[in-house]
Amino acid sequence: xxxxxxxxxxxxxxxxxxxxxxxxxxxxxxxxxxxxxxxxxxxxxxxxxxxxxxxxxxxxxxxxxxxxxxxxxxxxxxxxxxxxxxxxxxxxxxxxxxxxxxxxxxxxxxxxxxxxxxxxxxxxxxxxxxxxxxxxxxxxxxxxxxxxxxxxxxxxxxxxxxxxxxxxxxxxxxxxxxxxxxxxxxxxxxxxxxxxxxxxxxxxxxxxxxxxxxxxxxxxxxxxxxxxxxxxxxxxxxxxxxxxxxxxxxxxxxxxxxxxxxxxxxxxxxxxxxxxxxxxxxxxxxxxxxxxxxxxxxxxxxxxxxxxxxxxxxxxxxxxxxxxxxxxxxxxxxxxxxxxxxxxxxxxxxxxxxxxxxxxxxx
Length: 363
Fold this sequence. Notes:
There is one protein chain. By secondary structure, the chain is mostly helical. It has one domain. Helices cover 78% and strands 1% of the residues. A two-stranded antiparallel ribbon has the order 1-2. α5 runs parallel beside α13 and α8 (151-179) packs antiparallel against α13. The longest helix has 30 residues, at 27-56. The protein is globular and about 60 Å long. The N and C termini lie far apart (49 Å). Residues 183-187 and 347-363 have low confidence and may be disordered.
């Protein structure tokens, strides 16, 4: 029954896109439609990933889900860069890493059974994220005084981004090489979709998810104004969750079906991929639009560090359990509260004159 509802719900995505371009809907209605449409789309990506993993193994399966699932985030970030919303871009990317580490993985452990996770792969992801945080400090620390988008910060962000992209290429090569040596089901053992069919569904679902996520983000401003939330909180929590809808639903569905190792791979691979690939890729691609500076705020660096430490300690023994999932979810709630309390960067800069502050907010 649930599967039938989810299959029927897949029609909401194309309907939302059509209404967005053909009808003059209220933005609040668009927000609700888009949010609803992402649920069955996330489920479909989880289904396709699970079938693809039968052919490739859990490691490459997690990599595929992270790759397809992060496509909406890249599109959202570049659109925000084009509109000059640099704080929204940085906040959404920071929230994406923390969300995968704590929220996605937490719900996955809570939904799944007890079991073992791949410690080697987990600590590879932790190491990549730790390296990214250390490199982020290079442009971030100077940005804590003065304009975070000034040329100096942009210039510091470029070599940092190139270095992270090189790390991503090397780590991906060795990870895929290692997972190729792991057990992969034979053709006789595979009862689900073909690999080509699973990859085709993943690609199609990702495209629709990206379009729906764009509509959702476009209606978030009205939503944030009505509920009185800061743009930073909306970006770091709501936009990050929207952009990660594929990983959220996919990982939880996979964990619920007993494949907690694959679910953990999805969450951690996605967090690492955002940190060492998506963020630097946005910086590099932004040069075609408007150069982006990695001027992360103190609260963002603190949240990244806190999320990494809590997740590393929780999974140190290589075991998954519901209690560990609760710990991660509580940690995410604390981060969300910190983001809410932080507010927008401009509101805490007492050195700015009212006119300058107003110009920054309007810009």
